[in-house]
Amino acid sequence: MGADYTVNHHEDLKPQLEKIGLADGVDVVFNCSEADGNWDVIPPILKQLGRVLLITGMHKPINPTALMFKRCSLHWELMFSRTIFDNEPEKQGEILQRFASWVDAGVIDPRVRDDHRFESIADLPKAFDIQKSGKAIGKIVLAVDKANWDQLLSSKQ
Questions:
Q1: Which of 31, 47, 108, 111 has its C-alpha lying 20 to 30 A from 137's C-alpha?
Q2: What pTM, to 2 d.p., does this model score?
Q3: Distance separating alpha carbons of residues 153 and 132, to the nearest angstrom
Q4: Mean pLDDT of the chain
Q5: Burial class (CB in 10 A: 0-12, 13-18, 19+), 46
Q6: Residue 28 to residues 38, 65, 74, 88, 119: CA-CA distances in angstroms?
Q7: What residues have CB less than 8 Å from 9, skipping those under 6 apart?
C-alpha cells in the first residue's frame, strides 16, 4: 500500500507499534474508516504534539481531552467543504487535477484488488457487502456502461 509499516486496526495497536520500533507512539494518525470505533485507541498511541486526521464523520460524541494533555491536534477533511461553503470552489478542481497527474505519472498507485472489481450494476450488493464488512483493502470499483447507467437513472425518475 506504499507504507513503510502497516498495522491491523482489528487488533491491539500498542504491541504492533512496539514490534516495529514505535513503542513511544506515532506523530500522525490518519484514520480512513470507522472513526467512532477507533477513537478510544488513538490518543494513547500519539506522541506529544501529535496530529489526528479524520476523513469520516462521527456518529457519537468524543472526548478530546486526551488530546489536550499531549497538546495534540485534531483535523477533519471533507472533500467538498470548499464547494459547500463557496470557499474558492475552483481549487477543488485544481486539487483533483493535481492528484490525477500524480496517478498518471505513477507517483500514486490507487489500489484496486481484483476481487474488488465488478462489471455490472447487478454486482452492487456484493460491492456494498465488501465495504460494509470493514475488510476492504483499497478501492472498490463498479464499472457500469453508459446503457446500464442511463437505465438506472431513468428508473429513478
A1: 47
A2: 0.69
A3: 24
A4: 84
A5: buried
A6: 14, 17, 10, 28, 37
A7: 34, 38
